[in-house]
Structures are given as structure tokens and as C-alpha cells.
Amino acid sequence: MYNISVFMTCYNASPFIEDCIVSVLSQSFEDFEFVIVDDGSTDDTINKIQHFNDKRIRLIHNDHNYIESLNLSVNKSQGKYLAKMDADDIMFKDRLLIQYNYLEHNKDIDLLAGGMEFFGEMEGIYIPKINDTPVSMEDLFENNIIGHPTVMMRKEVLQHLPCLYEQEYAYAEDYKLWFTMLTNNLKLDNIPDILIKHRMSNTQASIVKQSEQAEAIRKIKDLYFPSRADS
To answer: How many Å is the Cα radius of gyration of the chain?
Structure first.
């Protein structure tokens, strides 16, 4: 069994998928598998993935259903730790090593996220809020301070959750998962290290589906903070 599974879904990611895969395969930490679920792509994404001759890559095909494909990528991953990756992002060379070492030395932390460098149609740096204690429900109510593309999670604890990513909260499915983890007594934390280059585009879901995302976030806040959901 690998120490880490990098899990990723992709849909019509042909323009960016090769750079993404190269950045993963070039990691300084080498003991990982790369689980890629193709979410029903209709371009040449699959062909580009298949051009890579690396035994760590496991390509899985699924019909177009993002939440289902996301859960499939998690469930098919066999590593001790699961590292999220987006098909148009770039990993910095030591990303896996940094998170692996942190989780190995902090056995009480179940999910670890970090910073991002934005590129593409917007540039900048995101460094998450760092507390003396792990992320709390209150922290998450104020803002989703867990950068989904940067997370590394313990596979074992995910297997005991009642659910993973939920279709009901599409476009904020990660935000809902963080609350699910916290209400099941798991610990989430951030580090200030910049782990990935995160591509910004006017066509990404958080922009195109902004109203749907806002509604999903409202539903999540209403579920966990019913008296404060409109705050």
C-alpha cells in the first residue's frame, strides 16, 4: 500500500492536464499512487492521461457526475493519506512531503490544508488563517478557511464518516464535508506553506455557479447554525 493517494477528478481538462500530471509525478515524495477519475470527458483528456507511462497512475472512467466521481476517487484510493488535486492546478515539488511529515508528527490532526498561489486570470497569494488550535465550527462559519485543492486527509477516518461529498450541497460539497468531519470529532488544521498553484478562471464553477454555491452555503449554515444562517 502506498503512503499517499493523490485523488483527482477531471472533465474536459485537455488544455491543462499534462502540466498538472507532470507536477504530481515530479514530487520529491515518491511513495504515492495517483488516482484519476475521468468524469465523462468528451475531449482528448483521456488520451493525454494515457500518454504517461507511470505505474503510479490509476485511471478510472465514470459517467459525467462530479460528486459521484469525487466520491469514487476517494473510495478507490488506497493510501494512508489522501491528497486532493485539481486537474488544472500545479503542485509545488515538496507539497506531498510537507503534508506527510506534518501528519506523521501530529497524529491528532485528521485533515491538513495550506496556502495557494493564484495564477491565470487572477494572481495573488492565499495564506489561510492559522490558529493556536485546530479549525473550529466558529472559524468555518465565518469563512471556509480550508482550501479544498490543498487538503490531505487520513483515509482511515474518512471510512467511518456517515457520508463524504454530498450531492445536496453541490458547489459547496467541500464546505459541508468539513462540518461533517468536525461533528464527528475529527480535527482540521492549516499550515502557512504555499502548496499549489491554483488556476483562476472566469469559467470555473465558483464563478459560473456563484448563486448555486451561495445557496448551498446558506443551507449548510442553516443546518449547523440555524439561528445565525443569515449573518
So the answer is: 17
